[in-house]
Structure formats: C-alpha cells, structure tokens
Amino acid sequence: MKVLGIGNAIVDVICKIEENFLTQNSLTKGTMKLVDKNQFKKILSSLKIEETISGGSVANSIVGLAQLGNEVGFIGKVSDDELGAKYEDGLKKEKVQYFYSKKKEEIPTGTCLILITPDSERTMVTFLGTAGKINENDINVEAIKKSKILFLEGYLWDEGDPRKAFEKAINYANKVAMSLSDLFCVERHKSNFLNLVKNNLDIVFANEQEIMSLIDTTKFEDVINFSKSFKKLIVVTRGEKGAVAIENDNVIQCNANKKLKIVDLTGAGDLFAGGFLDGYIKGKTIKESLEKGTEMSSKIIQIIGARIS
C-alpha cells in the first residue's frame, strides 16, 4: 500500500444556509464546532439536506489518492448501523481498503453538518459519535507496516484513547504525514501538535492560519524560518496566494488557479493533500506535487461536497 489513512469516519450531511444562520447558532464561519447528539439534532431540524455522503478529512484525501490510481487504505471507527454501513460502502466503491471490522457500538456513527453560505465558504458542526472513541485495539499494525506513508488528521487527536491510538500508529509507521486540520484543533492542542511536528512527523499539511497559530506568529516569514529549523517537509496552502512547501532550506511555491467558479470550499485542503501525496509517492518533484495538489483542490471547490465523483 502506498498510503494508509487513519481519521474520523464521519458521514457528511451537506446543507445550504444564509449568513444569519451562523449567528443564530453561535457558529464561526469557516471553522468546525464539536457538539453533542442533541445539539446536532436541534441544528439539523431546521435545515434542508442537499446531500449525504461518506466523509472525514483524511478519508477524503485517501479517496482522492485512490481515484488517481494508488493502492490505499483507511482505518476509522464506525458503528454497525445504517450510517456505518453507508460509510463502509462508500469507501469500498472507491476501491479503498477498509481496515476496520464494524460492530454494534453504544454510540452511533459520527456525522458532520457541512453548512454552505452564499459565498461558498463551509462551516462544520460535528457530532463525532463513535469515530472519536478510536483506541489502540482499532489500529491494524500490519496494515501500517505495509504502507509507505501513514497519514493522520489533527481532528482525530484527543487525550485518552485517541492519543494512544495515534502514538501506537506512529510507532509502527515507515513515514508519517499529518494534517493540522483546523484552527480549532490547533488552538485546542497547541503544545501537543507542536511536539508532534518537531519530533514525530515527516510531512505536515496546514493552511496559513493553522501553521501561524501553531507557532504564535502573525508573519509568514516566521513560518518559513520555523520549518527550515526543523528540516521537515511542511506544506502550507495560502488561498489565493497559492501554496508553498518548505523542505530543509528550500522554499518551493505554486500559484493558485484563477478564474474558477467556486461553489463549495469543502474538501479543498483534503484533496490538495491527496494530490500532493500522489505526486510525492510517484517520485515527482515538490513543485510538481504542489501543482497536483492545486489541480485536485481546484476541481473539488467547483462542485458540492468533498468527493470527486
């Protein structure tokens, strides 16, 4: 296997909303908020569902890699319920090997409300469900050993069992990549994420906001100096400014695609990471890998949802 992803196995429920819906429900545009089952149901009750599809950040990247012809796998916890079955079928349909045997859990399969405002920005409300209860026993060590790159998501990291699962997976990996996932995650787990970046990760994916929060700076120049000092491959998406990769002392830049008809920013970072890893594992240059990531993210933001059909 080229890449094995471990992430939150979440079913995405996509809805279009007006701007005032965010204010009414105390949501911050462009971020993710964790809620309990009752809060989730309350918010959903006043919405019209556009589409329901298997999601999860790293899972979206892994599906993108599969669509580009790579042998890939995924580990993510679901329950043996209707949404869990839908989730597993969604992966198998995309030819992703699913290294998890679902069983009936006390908590249902996780769900994420993706709320799209008229400016195409997406705001997420997540009920993690059983996805957030991943533990060491859910980690398939043999699958990790047989994959070239282990790809993790910041969304999954949490104290207790998820952290132990993370640490076990990293311990057996050949090479580790991780997405910082969301500003909410970075601010919640800053010291732990910083430790991971410095000591455990080979490749880091982040957007400009996330990486600048991680190192407490307002200047992008500091991000470059930070990345150079740790001799890691750090890949940063910068919206209209394109993307940049810092590897050792090299800074490689790629322009964003202009004149796109953007309809939904959901999955932009996920598909960028999938595209970049596709180039990377096929031995392309960092510049070519950035271009592949940009190509994939450009495709996904012109359709609804985080999966290219």
Summarize the model shown.
The chain is α/β, with parallel strands linked by helices and 309 residues long. The chain is 38% helix and 22% strand. The chain has one domain: Ribokinase (UDP-N-acetylmuramoyl-L-alanine:D-glutamate ligase).
Give a description of the structure.
The strands form 2 sheets. A 9-stranded mixed sheet has the order 6-5-1-9-10-11-12-13-14, with helices on both faces. A 5-stranded mixed sheet has the order 3-8-7-2-4. The mean pLDDT is 93. The chain is built from 12 helices and 14 strands. By secondary structure, the chain is an alpha/beta fold. It has a single domain, classed as Ribokinase (UDP-N-acetylmuramoyl-L-alanine:D-glutamate ligase), CATH 3.40.1190.20. β13 (243-247) and β14 form a beta hairpin. α3 packs across α11 (268-281) and α11 (268-281) packs antiparallel against α12 (286-300). The chain has helices spanning 19-24, 37-44, 57-67, 82-93, 141-145, 161-172, 183-188, 190-199, 208-214, 220-230, 268-281, 286-300, and strands at 3-6, 10-16, 32-34, 49-55, 72-75, 97-98, 110-116, 122-127, 149-153, 176-179, 203-207, 233-237, 243-247, 250-254. It is globular and about 50 Å long.
